[in-house]
Amino acid sequence: MSERNCNAQSNQLTGVESSKSKSRIVTAREHDLAVYILLSKLTAEGRKTVRENPGRIQEVNKEIEKLGVKVLSQYATLGPYDFVNVVEAPDNKTIVKVSVELGARGTVEITTLPTIVLDEFVATVKGK
Question: Which of 98, 99, 115, 126 pairs with 56 at a CA distance of 20 to 30 A?
Fold first, then answer.
């Protein structure tokens, strides 16, 4: 597999990393990073930017990686949100910085959802 894909395996968000010799499954938890869902809605200015320069989306991905957030997967969607992004970040402060930076540009409105691995959720509810 030549690119990183997200899969639901063992009830947690995982990715597949490939090397020349073999692929291995990695999780954000291996790196002590938190996983967030970013629901993005383009503003009128954002729609104009994407229409004129669709590649701008990948440029933004590179910019947020410089701020310490890695895009695990990204989807264009139909409905109330234009994009769903699955990202990993070291902490809430880092993801807040990215959300404010992108939102301040006036081209996108972002709803940020922190996630919890399903096994951790079940253990918490069980009181373990």
Answer: 115
Q: Has residue 25 got a pLDDT over 60? A: no
User: In 10 A of CB 80, how many CB atoms?
Assistant: 8
**Which pair of tokens denotes residue 73?**
């997967």
pTM of the model: 0.73
Order the strands of the 12-18 sheet from edge to edge.
5-9, 12-18, 23-27
Could you name the CATH architecture of 31-126? Answer: 2-Layer Sandwich (3.30)
Q: pLDDT-based confidence at 29, cuts 50/70/90?
A: low
Residue whose token pair is 């970040």: 89
C-alpha angle 14-100-76 in degrees, rounded to nearest 5: 50
**Residue 74: beta bridge partners?**
85
Per-residue pLDDT tens over the stretch 72-111 = 999 999 999 999 999 999 999 999 999 999 999 999 999 9
Question: What are the domain boundaries of the chain?
Answer: 31-126
Contacts 24+ apart (CB under 8 A), 57-62: 57/83, 60/102
